[in-house]
Amino acid sequence: MDTATAIAASARANGLSGLEQLRALIASGKRPGIAMALDFDLAEVDEGHALFIGTPGLHAYNPIGTVHGGYAAALLDSACGCAVHSRLSPEQMYTTLELKVAYHKAITSESGQLRAEGRVVSLGRRAAFAEATLKDAPGRLFASATSTLLVIES
Question: What is the per-residue pLDDT across 23-40, written as a single tens digit (0 to 9) for each?
Fold first, then answer.
């Protein structure tokens, strides 16, 4: 179990809400494996909202010379998932059931820092719906996503 996963498990065990768990993760300075591999960070979280920041580099390139679509998808999935996580009780978890990504503009290492901003659209007892956008500093849209998530009682 990586350090970030251990922090999340400990926070859940200590009765922290999803929002408190995510704030504890940010405060720890630790990152889950996907964030380390793709070099992005959870920068902000509030109830129903999550912001990830990443700067794409050559580590995320595909064979055709642009950033792989999976980089954008990972940021958008993380933003949607953590937005939902921020609304969960200590007894709840989630998993992504569906992620639909639309790619609006090619990403390269010249794109600069990107911001994946997710928000909860609706949250029910068993299902949640979220959406996210991936933009650069001037606000140009590179990708967007909608997500359906399963809420699980632990």
Answer: 999 999 999 999 999 999
